[in-house]
Amino acid sequence: MIEIASVSKFYNQKRALDGVDLTIQSGRIFGLIGPNGAGKTTLIRILNQIIEPSTGHVRIGGVPLNNGHVKTFGYLPEERGLYREMKVLDHLVFLARIRGLSKGEALKASDFWLDKFEIKPWAAKRIDSLSKGMAQKVQFIGTVLHDPNVVILDEPLSGFDPLNIQLILHEIKAMKKAGKTVIFSTHNMNSVDEICDEVGLINQGKLVAHDQVSALREKHKTGAFKVRYKGNQIAFANALWTGFELIHTEELGDQWFQSVIKSRHGEAFNDVYNTLSSSVELQLLEEQLPGMQDIFLELVTPHSHE
Questions:
Q1: Is 179 left (phi over 0), alpha (psi -120 to 50) or beta?
Q2: Which terminal Cβ of the chain has fewer Cβ within 10 Å, N or C?
Q3: Which of 47, 51, 6 is nearest to 153 (CA)?
Q4: CB of 182 closer than 8 Å to CB of 176
Q5: Section 7-24 average pLDDT
Q6: Could you tell me the domains of the chain?
Q7: pTM of this prediction exceeds 0.70
C-alpha cells in the first residue's frame, strides 16, 4: 500500500503540488489523471525519488519511502529515453543490472520478455534502427523485467498502434492479477474506463477527485437513458409527460425508434421501465453512465480559465 500524506512541492514561488493526501491499495490499477501541468509528473517523480517533496511524506507498506524501494519499483517515464547506440539485448541487460539483477538473471529475464513480445530477432539490433513502436516495446520491457512490486507507467500507450495498445493493456491486467500495484497515468480516458480500479484526478496541484471508477461514474451520472422501442411516438411522448425530458429521437424504420431521455427527478431504472412499458414495446432500456472522459471534462473545465 502506498500512502501519500500532505505532499506539497514548490519550485521557487510556484506550487506544483498542494497538500495531496492519497492512498493507493496494493494489487490494484490506479489511474492518475489530470490536465497538462496539473502536477501528475511531479508526484510520479516524488514516488520514484527523483525529487523530494517540500512538505509531507510517502510510505510504502507502512515504511517511509527510501533507497531500498528503488529496486522494487518499475518506472516508464513520459519522456522516453534509450541509448540509441546500444543493442537491444545489451540495453535490457544494462537496465536489469542497475535494478539489482545478476548478469545471468538479466539475460534470462530479457530473453523471456523479448520472446513474449515477439521481438527476439531484434535482440542484436541497435536501438536507433528500431521503429518508434518497437523502441517503445523495448522500453516497456525495461520497466518490468526486474519483476517490480510497484509499476509506474506515465503515458505508456503513446506511440503504439491499436494492436499493440491491447498488448500493453493485457500485460497491465496480468500485473494486477499477479498482485502488483500499477499506477497508470494517461490522457487516454477510454483505457482508464477499461482497466483502472480507482482514479485520482489532480488539477492545479490539488487532488480534486479520488474514488473507484464505478463509484465516480455513478456519482456523476446525469439521469440519461437510451430507449429503443416500437410504437407510436405520441404515446411515447405522453408517457414521458413531466417526469422526463426527451433529448433526441432517431427513426430506425418499421415503427422502431431510438431515443435518449433524461430523468427530471432522479428516477431509477425500474421507474423508467414501468413508465414506458405500458405505452410502447421496449427492445432496449439502458442507463447512460458517463465515461471518465465526461467526468474529467466536468471536473477540470470550470477551472480551465484560471
A1: left
A2: C
A3: 47
A4: yes
A5: 93
A6: 2-218 (3.40.50.300), 222-288 (3.30.70.1710)
A7: yes
